[in-house]
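Hi R.,

Here's the chain you asked about this morning:
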Amino acid sequence: MSIRTLEDNADEPRLRTELDDGRTVDIEITGSPNNKRRVDVSVDGGQTWIFAVEDRTAGLIDLHGAGQPDEVPNWIEPLLQRIGIEGVEE
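And here is the predicted structure, written out as tokens:
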């Protein structure tokens, strides 16, 4: 799974990757490393998971969309680790 940069803004990048099943995932990072960051992970035509990040750990703060249970899928944590987040709290 490779991650491509959609917008080359080093402070608030937008990234895209594809899952093994062919779905597209967009990742939007807002905030600064010096305060709480927000990371939105959106699946094309599906849910959006919204995380607050503090001390390199992401915590799920909101979930939008339908079709899946209110839990973080197992593919999200390795994806977030590839962008520098150490772990995910549910």
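One quick note: The longest strand covers residues 57-64.

Cheers,
M.
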